């Protein structure tokens, strides 16, 4: 089964927010990405609304449900009461829980499933009651998988930052092996596997080749940078090819 591409539109929102003007359009570029064959859209609304605003979440929900009923909407974030209520109102297909401090510049680690197990079990139960699939952000370490499974999550999202940030081949190889071992342990435990953070056209093919069971990658920063060069539609096609899709 091919790995699905979910386009993260945080960086598009961040560019729009430089001015009090409605462009570039988060909904418009998400529409182009879906028309070009992306499987879904990802947003990570942060409490300070530095990029995605609460209104974007509802505008995207309306567009996706009306125009692309088979597409997946994925909302990522720390499970604060505000975030949980936002998800319960928007009802995305998937919620990805990330252990981010509000002041954090970007996501840089997965959950400590031992320490935060009780919190995760409680919020995952609540989100699943609302009909949403739940994924949890996890470092590449197979020892974390039993704890992840005990939370009741449906999937894990492998935190690929250390792999994406490794520019020496032997370091990248070692990071990829950790991700592969974690994905294999997750599959054995009955968990689905997503992946994301700092994935690019350069580092994606060898990850997919080594870890073919990845159900979905969510990609934003590098994909948006590439879209400035190639345009959104062509960029989505390039990333779909890198995911192993026949385009
Ligand atoms: C969860 C994750 O990996 C992040 O990549 C995130 O979605 C990106 O957040 P920012 O766009 O705020 O850096
Ligand atoms: N979950 C990861 C994501 O949505 C995008 O991360 P990045 O490509 O912006 O690093």
From TrEMBL:
Q: Which domain of life is it from?
A: Bacteria
Chief site of localization: cytoplasm
Q: Which residues bind 1-deoxy-D-xylulose 5-phosphate?
A: 46, 51, 106
Active-site residues are 44, 76, 197
Gene Ontology MF terms:
pyridoxine 5'-phosphate synthase activity
Name the catalysed reactions: 3-amino-2-oxopropyl phosphate + 1-deoxy-D-xylulose 5-phosphate = pyridoxine 5'-phosphate + phosphate + 2 H2O + H(+)
Amino-acid positions noted as binding 3-amino-2-oxopropyl phosphate in the UniProt annotation, renumbered to this chain: 8, 19, 198, 220-221
Protein purpose: Catalyzes the complicated ring closure reaction between the two acyclic compounds 1-deoxy-D-xylulose-5-phosphate (DXP) and 3-amino-2-oxopropyl phosphate (1-amino-acetone-3-phosphate or AAP) to form pyridoxine 5'-phosphate (PNP) and inorganic phosphate.
Q: Which NCBIfam families match?
A: pdxJ, PRK05265.1-4
What family does this chain come from, according to its entry?
Belongs to the PNP synthase family.
Which protein are we looking at? Pyridoxine 5'-phosphate synthase
Q: Which organism is the protein's source?
A: Phreatobacter aquaticus
Q: What does the record give as the organism's lineage?
A: Bacteria, Pseudomonadati, Pseudomonadota, Alphaproteobacteria, Hyphomicrobiales
Q: Encoded by which gene?
A: pdxJ
């Amino acid at each position: 089964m091919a790995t699905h591409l979910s386009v993260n539109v945080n960086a598009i929102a961040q560019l729009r927010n430089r001015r009090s003007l409605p462009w570039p359009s988060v909904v418009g570029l998400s529409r182009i990405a879906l028309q070009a064959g992306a499987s879904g859209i990802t947003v990570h609304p942060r409490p300070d609304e530095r990029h995605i605003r609460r209104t974007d979440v509802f505008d995207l929900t309306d567009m996706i449900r009306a125009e692309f009923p088979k597409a997946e909407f994925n909302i990522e974030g720390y499970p604060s009461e505000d975030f949980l209520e936002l998800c319960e109102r928007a009802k995305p297909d998937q919620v990805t829980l990330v252990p981010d401090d509000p002041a954090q510049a970007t996501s840089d680690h997965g959950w400590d499933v031992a320490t935060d197990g009780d919190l995760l079990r409680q919020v995952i139960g609540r989100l699943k009651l609302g009909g949403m699939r739940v994924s949890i952000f996890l470092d590449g370490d197979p020892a974390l998988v039993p704890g992840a499974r005990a939370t009741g999550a449906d999937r894990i999202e492998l935190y690929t930052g250390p792999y994406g940030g490794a520019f020496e081949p032997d370091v990248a190889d070692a990071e990829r092996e950790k991700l592969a071992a974690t994905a294999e342990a997750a599959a054995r435990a009955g968990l689905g596997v997503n992946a994301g953070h700092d994935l690019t056209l350069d580092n994606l093919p060898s990850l997919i080749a080594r870890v073919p069971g990845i159900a979905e990658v969510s990609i934003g920063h590098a994909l948006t940078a590439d879209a400035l060069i190639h345009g959104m539609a062509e960029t989505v096609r390039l990333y779909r090819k890198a995911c192993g899709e026949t385009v």
